[in-house]
What does this fold into?
Amino acid sequence: MPDNRNSNINFHPMHQKVTIEPFRIKVVEQIRLTTREQREAFLRQAAYNPFLLKSEQVIIDLLTDSGTSAMSAEQWAAIMRGDESYAGARSWERLEAVIKDLTGYPYILPTHQGRAAEHLLYTRLGGPGKVFISNTHFDTTRANIEFSGARAIDIPIPEARRPEAIHPFKGNMDTARLEALIAQHGADKIGAVILTVTNNSGGGQPVSMANAREVSRICRKHGVRFILDACRIAENAYFIKHREPGYEDKSYREIAQEMFRLADGCVMSAKKDGLVNIGGFLGLNDLELALQCRTVLIITEGYATYGGLAGRDMEAMAVGLQEVFDPDYLHYRITSTAYLGNKLDELGVPIVRPVGGHAVYVDARAFYPHIPVEQYPGQALVCNLYLEGGIRCCEIGSVMFGKYDEQGKLIPAAMELVRLAIPRRVYTQSHIDYVIETFAELMQHRDKAHGFRITWEPPFLRHFTARFEPAGGAED
Ligand code: F0G
It folds into this structure.
């Protein structure tokens, strides 16, 4: 049963009974079960990078919560209403109305996913000499900014860098540093200040309304643009309602609306809290900027009333963006993630605490203290979870964020995390119990695990396609 011992923070409403999945299953998708021997061969063929595995080689896929949601009967029904007209489709009108009502921004640009919205906005606002400041830039955000020639600086609060530190809003931005950075670089050099809610790369941790309000105040004072990366804003709203005084009686939707209205615009990947398999958007207050982005949208994504999406995709998104605020859904969503985190914690698996919204993050450096960061302990854990249980997940450490100095020596990431991301409405509690059992097995022989070496890597976003080999030592 999901318990509430995650922290001493007022976290979830107390429930006497198990939190059940608040849905029945209407369609099923078969999982292919594999043996350890088969998985050893599959992983070798995939150069020890689970991104290179085929999905049918995976038993439980916790690689991402993005685009992996199960859609509801209502969303599938809406798909039949899709208006596939090139211009002025009814499906666009419906989606635009839902997004305007939620965000309050007058200018909405549809995109096929979040990074397309990032690309439109950050290539306009970026360029050499520009600086972007965030609680933590997600990898595609950072890549889009750096690709434009600008710099991306992360300023989470100090607690965010300590996996064991308990804080109710560990996703918050360090606002004193924000003031200092604006003073240091000059307001005219700041491309944007970006608040990522929840803070994905920082452990799926929430951002408080008070923090968003302070970021907004500072940005307005200096005339700096404030953008919300809103892809998990409904999950963030759950934490605010249950942890931040003054929000107990607000609905999740009202909380999200209040946060959107503090910013000058947003980018959103609807593949998360939009509960769809594809889709995203850019929302802006500024007409001039919206027109500039729209020109690039039409060149690169599609016409302004579909932006790379089919009409049916926009229908599913319009429904998903409303369903996600259902209180029973959000309660199930956050407590079921906490269930996995708390069980791993009980086993002695070092995790980022408190547990975040969409994922449990394991501290791989603490799990495998004998593996040096140059041999990527996170990659070792990712590989061993696959070998032991056919579970696929993602390293968020020095493979994803590591850089090299001039001598070619690794500058490691701040943390070596492994993310177990939970797709929305897809897995039941027994799937999650299987993940917990697999961790129990790995705990038995964790001192025998070995690290990895990179044998090939691309210049950007290397974690997707890098190839590895075992760094020697005992085969686990
Ligand atoms: N911003 C955040 C905070 C994200 O987590 C993601 C995607 C994006 C932007 C980009 O959106 O994928 O639709 O282009 N995160 C996925 C993940 C990939 O696995 O966390 P996208």
Residues 36-61+326-470 form a domain with the Aspartate Aminotransferase, domain 1 fold (CATH 3.90.1150.10).
